[in-house]
């Protein structure tokens, strides 16, 4: 993809985010666009950053590592949005600013210990909640959520900042709405019990096909790949 095309795509998505936010009385700046660059080359990520992409997401540690080394660890905020295996946790602590896919207390404890070893004071994480119960998708059941959130308060460096979900794919984005709404309810419940400190809590939800609906349901982080970088 040319940089001109990338520029057009980014401008269009930003305009759509703004329209979706204003439509429901929210501030556009309360929605962070995370450009999901998996499978796309470092050169394209660099171009996106030059065009103002403040947040970039990858779903696999190994692929991200090469790209982050090429583009620069501090060139943008790097988000891990895919499942994290225990044996990649140290690399994840080194490479990513935010981890969206926390799915167990064991992983959280490991990340917390590794932060200590790597001299990292603070690691913002989101718990991935499995609302669609599809075999291929990870995350915890909503029934386990409050217990996990409570236990995370004991950790020194891992800091719970919000919830993430990946609903089943629907051609009609309206069908994803109940999943987004449910995640918001869960976030609100946790917030009322202080799970996010004095913050309201982030909602990482919405992709190319459904981010406008997600914003209407309260998304504060949308993860958009295809509409920015093209088909994978
Ligand atoms: C790939 C991916 C996205 C982006 O999906 P698009 O449909 O290309 O916008 C968002 N979130 C996660 C977790 C992903 O793996």
For the structure shown, list the relevant keywords:
alpha/beta, TIM Barrel, binds pyridoxal-5'-phosphate
Overview of this protein structure:
It is globular and about 50 Å long. The protein has 232 residues and is α/β, with parallel strands linked by helices. The protein is built from nine helices and eight strands. Helices cover 41% and strands 16% of the residues. α2 (42-50) packs across α3 and α4 (89-95) packs across α5 (105-117). It has a single domain, classed as Alanine racemase (TIM Barrel, Alpha-Beta Barrel), CATH 3.20.20. An eight-stranded parallel sheet has the order 7-6-5-4-3-2-1-8. The protein has helices spanning 3-23, 42-50, 61-71, 89-95, 105-117, 145-152, 177-192, 211-216, 226-229, and strands at 32-36, 55-58, 77-80, 98-102, 123-128, 158-164, 202-204, 221-224. Bound molecules: pyridoxal-5'-phosphate (PLP).
Q: What's this entry about, in short?
A:
With 232 residues, this protein is an alpha/beta fold. Helix content is 41%, strand content 16%.
Class based on secondary structure composition and strand pairing: alpha/beta
How many domains? 1
Globally, the shape reads globular
- Supply the CATH architecture: Alpha-Beta Barrel
β-strand amount: 15-25%
Strand line-up of the largest beta sheet: 7-6-5-4-3-2-1-8
Share of helical residues: 40-55%
Q: Biggest β-sheet: count, sense, barrel?
A: 8 strands, parallel
**Low-pLDDT segments:** none
| Ligand names | pyridoxal-5'-phosphate
- What is the total tally of β strands? 8
């Amino acid at each position: 993809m040319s940089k001109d095309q990338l520029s057009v795509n980014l401008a269009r998505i930003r305009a759509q985010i703004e329209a979706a936010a204003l439509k429901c009385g929210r501030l556009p700046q309360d929605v962070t666009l995370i450009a999901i660059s998996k499978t796309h080359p470092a050169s394209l990520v660099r171009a996106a950053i030059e065009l103002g992409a403040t947040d970039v997401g990858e779903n696999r540690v190994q692929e991200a590592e090469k790209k982050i080394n090429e583009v620069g660890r501090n060139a943008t905020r790097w988000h891990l949005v895919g499942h994290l295996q225990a044996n990649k946790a140290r690399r994840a602590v080194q490479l990513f600013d935010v981890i969206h896919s926390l799915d167990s207390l064991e992983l959280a404890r490991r990340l917390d210990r590794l932060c200590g070893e790597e001299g990292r004071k603070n690691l913002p994480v989101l718990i991935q909640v499995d609302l669609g119960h599809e075999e291929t998708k990870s995350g915890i059941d909503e029934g386990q959520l409050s217990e996990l959130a409570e236990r995370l308060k004991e950790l020194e460096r891992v800091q719970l900042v919000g919830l993430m979900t990946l609903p089943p794919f629907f051609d009609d984005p309206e069908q994803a709405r109940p999943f987004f709404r449910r995640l918001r309810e869960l976030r609100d419940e946790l917030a009322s019990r202080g799970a996010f400190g004095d913050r309201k809590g982030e909602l990482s939800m919405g992709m190319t096909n459904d981010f406008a609906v997600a914003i209407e349901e309260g998304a504060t982080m949308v993860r958009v790949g295809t509409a920015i970088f093209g088909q994978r």
